[in-house]
């Protein structure tokens, strides 16, 4: 396993218990990203780096009884909390697995992929390649996360780095966190959130 994956797992071991409480203030942004996927009943959607499963309920609601939610999460501590959520609700249309995004084998080709606050995955060429090669041509993609402020704001980026470092192994690589995914997409749009310290983006996977 790559050292960055090991570092991420160690970091989320410390954060898992308090994650849902700390994520509450960004829940509205998660829902905005999900809305950009324009999910339809019957769709298969992949939740990339699902964490504790905070997006499961809204994704399941959007794809309906005939759809499927697939999810991958590498941290055993975060996955255990996601699994607890699944046990509480049942959710027969949900399939999730504890695996690195770099290695996961999906049981169905996704029509849509959600990258919500998964910086280390979007910076991993192996993860991006592995996930996108399993998606349907033209799959809808939506992403949100943290980024650096424009370079001329200088010291503000120290703040961005400090906020990211406890969570992300690749916290120095925050200039264009969407670019590896964007390179595989058409109609890709990026907007700014959180006063410039965040981004929200969406596009469609280019057909091979
Ligand atoms: C900030 S959390 C976001 C969780 C969830 N998407 C959300 O919106 O709350 C980032 C998650 O990505 C997971 N992660 C990081 N690198 C990963 C990788 N290479 N493969 C799978 N999961 C990974 C972490 O374990 C963590 O749970």
Automatic annotation (TrEMBL):
Pfam families: PCMT (PF01135). This is Methyltransferase domain-containing protein. It comes from Pseudaquabacterium pictum. SUPFAM superfamilies: S-adenosyl-L-methionine-dependent methyltransferases.
């Amino acid at each position: 396993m790559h050292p960055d994956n090991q570092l991420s797992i160690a970091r989320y071991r410390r954060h898992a218990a308090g994650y849902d409480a700390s994520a509450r203030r960004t829940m509205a942004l998660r829902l905005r990203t999900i809305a950009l996927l324009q999910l339809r009943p019957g769709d298969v959607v992949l939740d990339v780096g699902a964490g504790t499963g905070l997006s499961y309920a809204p994704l399941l609601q959007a794809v309906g009884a005939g759809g499927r939610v697939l999810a991958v999460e590498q941290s055993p501590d975060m996955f255990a909390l996601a699994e607890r959520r699944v046990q509480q609700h049942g959710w027969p249309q949900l399939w999730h697995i504890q695996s690195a995004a770099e290695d996961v084998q999906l049981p169905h080709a996704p029509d849509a992929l959600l990258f919500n606050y998964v910086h280390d995955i979007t910076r991993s060429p192996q993860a991006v390649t592995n996930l996108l090669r399993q998606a349907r041509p033209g799959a809808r993609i939506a992403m949100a996360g943290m980024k650096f402020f424009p370079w001329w704001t200088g010291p503000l980026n120290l703040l961005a780095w400090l906020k990211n470092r406890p969570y992300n192994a690749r916290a120095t690589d925050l200039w264009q966190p969407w670019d590896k995914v964007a390179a595989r997409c058409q109609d890709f749009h990026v907007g700014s959130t959180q006063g410039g310290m965040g981004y929200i983006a969406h596009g469609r996977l280019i057909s091979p």
